Amino acid sequence: MQYHLNGYTYGDPSIAPAGPNHRHPGEQMPAEVDVLVVGTGPAGAVLTAQLAEFPEVSVVTVDRRTEPLARGHADGVACRTVEMFEAFGLADTLVREALWVNETAFWSVEESGNGITRTGLVQDVADGLSEFPHVIVNQARMQELLFDNAKKSPSRHEVDYGWQYVSQLIDETHDYPVEVTLESTREATAGDTRTIRAKYVVGCDGARSAVRKSIGRHLHGDVQNHAWGVLDILVHTDFPDIRKKAVISSEAGSMILIPREGGYLVRMYADMGAVPEDDSEFRNRITVEQVIDQANAILSPYTVDVKDVAWWSVYEVGQRIADGFDNLNDDERAANQPRIFIAGDACHTHSAKAGQGMNVSMQDTFNLGWKLGAVLRGQAHPRLLHTYAEERRVTAQQLIDYDTHWSRMVGSRDSGNPVTPQDVQDQFVRGGKFTAGFATHYQPEFSPLTGTDDHQDLATGYEIGTRFHSAPVIRVADAKPVQLGHVHRADGRWRVYLFADQTGVGAGSTVANWCERMHADANSAINRFTDPGAARDSTFDVYGISQDDHLDVDITDIHELLQPAKGKFGLQDLEKVFSAEKTNGRLLGNIPGLEATQDLYDLRGVDRAKGAVVVVRPDQYIAQVLPLNEFDTFDKYFATYLLDTKVSA
């Protein structure tokens, strides 16, 4: 963490200096705002936290609730989501508080018919997928971390609770084209309305989204007419895997058991059976006692003696997706920019059994947030906003397809086509990359932000369109072992990683030549799209990675693009050059005799003879892999969406 750039700073370094136009506590909601976020669920929390990083962007977040969520709802946090939290500086807190899901147990009916027995035990996340674990944390705590982060940002953002979205009108002749009517939900002012104008509105207001309805979008898909009860409970039990994730199938039905953070607490998803097609009130008649009884029936011969119910609910399994993720029809896109977006459950719904709902919702707005920030700050053309729907609708459909298949396997009672315990376990292993959050692949066929794979052979482990997979390195300036991916902050900047060939990173190297061309050529992307009055790395954050031992890298012989002078004192940033050397166990806890056997080049398939340029989007996805001597493709890529600094925002 660096924070003394413009002078000595004391106190909590996570609290950024307040921006000049931040809203003060208790100050009335403004009449005009850049972005109105509707809803404080996972999607709304990430979007708020991301936009709060940009002091130039004004944001109002509203929710019909009169206070923050306290309990219940989602709890599974995929490895990919923890990586995203690292970009906000929140992963350490999240991982420290969370329960780590290390193994998943599989239970099924004993051949003797005397209840259930364990049929398998599987490592939950395969080795090498991520430096972070799969964890369990209450959705309410996830949201609290993100909103607290927004309060510490230059924007000092706070949520306006007690307001629900009613309607909208769009007038493109106005500087703030979307006029939204809000209605108070607080008891003292219930029914009072007010209007607010915005440049953009994002509906993160759940499956019954008022924003979605106001733009004429509809959810389409299937409901499986099957009910599941969910309990967060404190119990006495003799079930041996109560502190492991467990997938259980018995004659009485199916169950998924999730141990919770903080110890003692456990979540159970219990199969409550088919919902009659002509009985819309079936679910509402199920009581908590019935769910507990069903849990005991499924777990027999084991029992759970429930001492306290922290939260419970009943839901029907259904997989649906919206017919559009913004307010534009296809024939309107060429001449217009979207003004209203929907994200999270507002545009895709599914069961809880794959543990992906909260995670995919957060990735929706992590995708959208940097794009809105770039457009509103005058860095990018508004056509960039079209890529949100292009990328995320495909991802949502992939989630629904997987969830449909997994839900049917877990809840199957089809005697004519039985699903065996081994089938369920095998599918869990096959789907490991998906459930860890790493199946998202922004293919060039549907994502104009993804380059071609012409040079993929230069870095086979950095597949274009996928998330940037971190690896251990040594920071040259101070010999600190770090994860390379952790330099990525949720600040809207592009990361450019220069993996050196065998000439290293010093003067005369191929890396130095790349830096000099980008630095000296007035028409290079770095010069065209970086504001001359801003820090040299304000748009492109460039890093150099050497194959040499860190002791053999001369820190005084590095190009200025990799050691930019910043701030009012022109201080050099010395934390942009790394060594890919084997870390000799230093990232593994300094355990005697434990040594790394591969360096980053081995782990990620980087060509040692040629090196590579890996371009990473602000949301941590790989946009391009290029040779170190290929400049035009790099420049042309950014010219498609970024605005020349000479162009007025």
From TrEMBL:
Its cofactor is FAD. Residues 32-401 form the FAD-binding domain. One of its GO terms (molecular function) is FAD binding. It comes from the Bacteria. Keywords: FAD, Flavoprotein, Monooxygenase, Oxidoreductase. InterPro entries: FAD-bd, FAD/NAD-bd_sf, Phe_hydrox_C_dim_dom, PHOX_C_sf, RIFMO-like, Thioredoxin-like_sf. Residues 447-644 form the Phenol hydroxylase-like C-terminal dimerisation domain. PANTHER family: BINDING MONOOXYGENASE, PUTATIVE (JCVI)-RELATED (PTHR43004:SF19), TRK SYSTEM POTASSIUM UPTAKE PROTEIN (PTHR43004). Belongs to the PheA/TfdB FAD monooxygenase family. NCBIfam families: PRK08294.1. This is Phenol 2-monooxygenase.
